[in-house]
Every structure is written in C-alpha cells, then in structure tokens.
Amino acid sequence: MLIFKLPVKLTLLVLAAIAAGVLWQQAQLSVLALSRIDPVPETRAMVAEERYADAADYLDFFMAYDYVNQDPAAQALHAEIEAVRSSVSYQAGKLSEGLLNGTSDETVGQAASVITDLFVIGDIRDLAKQATNLAQGEDVDEVITALATIGLVATAAQLASGAATAATAGAAAPSVAASTTAKGGIIILKTARKLGKLPPWLGKAIIQGAKTVKQTKKLDAVTDLFSDVYRLAKTRGGLNLLSKTTDAASLRRMAKLADTFGDQSATLYRIGGNSFVRAAERAGDLGVDSIKLAATYGKGGLHVLDKVGALRFAKFTARGSKMVYKGDVIHLLARLFVNVPDWVLYFLVALGAFVWVPWRWLGRLRKNGQAKPGFDRSVRPVITR
C-alpha cells in the first residue's frame, strides 16, 4: 500500500510530531498567535468626531505600555489631544455644556452639571422644561420628570437630615449619606437620558420608583438602585457602562467592575466587551494588571488569559516579546497551528503511530505461533521398563 511506502511514512511521522507539539504547546501558541492593538487609528477616528475626552481616555490606557509610548505617531497624537483639551476655548465650551444642558464629557462641564443638580436648581429647571413642553403640546419626558421628582425629595431629605445630624451630634449621618447617594445617582441618570444612554429597563424602574417616592416621601424604593448607579457615576465613562446593562443584576456587576478598574473601566469594556466582564469577575484570581495586559491584545487576549491563567499568560507573553526579532513568521505559524481543530491533530498523531507499527513482523510472529505443534493431553507417554 502507498501509505506504507517509506517517503509517505516519513512525511506522516513529521506531521504527527508537529501535531503532537502543537497539542503540547497549545497554550503558548495561543498567546503567540495574538496581535497587540494599535490604538492610533481608533484614536484618530475619535478626534475626527471631536470626541477628545474619549480619545484621551482610550489612548492613555495604551500609553502605559512601551510598544505604544515609544511610538512617535502615538506621542504626537497624545500631545495634539492634550493641547486641544487644555485650550481656553475648549474648556469654556464644556463649561457651558454643563451649565446649560446638564451634560458634558469633560470634568469642568460635569462639575458645572453637578453643581446645578446637587442643589434644587437642576430639578426645578428640568421640571419647568417638561411643564413648558406639556403646555406647548410637545412630548413630556416621563423619565426626566420622574428623576426631577425624586431629586426634590432627595434635596428635602438632605436638608432635614443635615439639621437632624447637627441636632443629634451625628446620629442621623446615614440619612445624609443616603440622600447624597441618591442625588449622585440622579445626576448620572439625567445625563444618561439626555445623551440617549439610559437602557429601557432602567427608565421603567425609575418611573415606577418615582411613584413610590412621591407617595411615601422616602427614598427607600430607589436606594439600592441609585447606590449602584452612583458607583458608576464616580467613574469616567460610567455612562457607557450604564448603557450596556440589562437589569439590576447586570448593573450591580458593572458597578463592582467600576470599583475594581476605576477610570479605565469604560476603555477596557470598549476593548473587550463581555470578554472583559467575564475576566473582571475573576479579577481576584487573574489580577487587575494581568487583565489590563491581556486587554492590549483585544478580546482574544482576554479569552486566552481566562483559559490559561495569569501566571502562564505572563510567562508566554514574556517569551513572545523575546521572539519579536523573528518578525511575523512566528506569529503567522502560531495563528496557523492554533486554528487547526484538535480532532485533526489527534488524527495525525494516531495515523503517524499507525503507519510505523511493524505490522509485517507482528503478522509473521502470529503465523509462527500458530504453526507450532500443540501438546495433546489425551496421549499418554509410553514408559518402558
């Protein structure tokens, strides 16, 4: 048979050895097959859309790594973004956004928005605007109205709790904290609504909660919900994370994620999506720094990290960085091998072993065994005396 010819057997032996090696080093090949993200094109796209705050957050995350911070193109782009953001005209525009619209993607505008909304000014402004819409026959935003209603109750609670705290030497401090948390949650929810980033499920929950708050004059019905929202409010890009939630449980996961990764949470989610969320849930085992490193390789990096663990991922990436002088050859070979299905690899190993089994020798050995005369127990030996 052709399969038992020596050249074919040698070829199959080589393929079997390669397949066995791929199976043995599958984890390392998975890392070597990864490509690191070049953040410059994506950042330039954001700059073209004048989303300077988002562009800065995205590029700043990658600037922590040598392969980006030593890139002249990335350095120039980073300087360009910082020059725009630090200009007086840009800061004035963002301040105006926060004061007049209650929305902004920059700190100065967000601070102005917070100032108006922390006090009763913002809630009265929003209620007056919705009343004007109603009088003119225009659509009334039920969510904004509900948030403003809750805001008025929270402001009243703050004033009452503040007075009670002074009178009771601090015993009423928890009530002050609860009302402050509610106000913080209201601020981010109003902004999310105005920017179209409030998920439908949350809008319904707010309207329902406002009805209860209006009846009871207490914030208990929305305390847990607003507490999680407030945790997101303290994080840059929290609105983007909020927009991805689907229910109260996912909101709590996002809030916990934001607590762990801080201002880089939104950028990491932008890079990894649900792969990042899954990795973040194991942050205690994988480590925050390992997850950030894996994110520089995109979703694939986060998937491999989750599969091989933090120690092996760090070891394999370190080895990969030492192989960079070999160019794209290693990367291309790794991508080729890692995409071969496991069943194909096992088949090649089995086939290589099969053709090198000495079938002819085993066949002759079997025939020789069958040709030997058997011992007949019915024949008794003749004993001569």
Write the layout of secondary structure elements.
Layout: H1 6-24, H2 26-32, H3 39-48, H4 52-62, H5 66-69, H6 72-85, H7 88-101, H8 107-118, H9 120-135, H10 142-167, H11 173-194, H12 200-216, H13 223-233, H14 238-243, H15 248-261, H16 265-272, H17 274-281, H18 283-286, H19 288-295, H20 299-308, H21 310-322, H22 328-338, H23 342-355, H24 359-371
Helix pairs in contact: 1-23, 2-21, 2-22, 3-4, 3-6, 4-6, 7-8, 8-9, 8-11, 9-10, 10-11, 10-12, 11-13, 13-15, 16-17, 17-20, 19-20, 20-21
Low-confidence stretches: 161-176
**Mind telling me the C-alpha Rg?**
34 Å
Mean pLDDT: 76
- Overall number of domains: 4
* Count of extended strands: 0
Question: Strand-residue fraction?
Answer: under 5%
Oligomer: single chain
The residue fraction in helices comes out at: over 70%
Largest sheet: none
**Cα separation of the termini:** 61 Å
Taken in chain order, the helices and strands follow as HHHHHHHHHHHHHHHHHHHHHHHH
Number of helices: 24
Sheet/helix structural class = mainly alpha
**Quick one: overall form?**
elongated
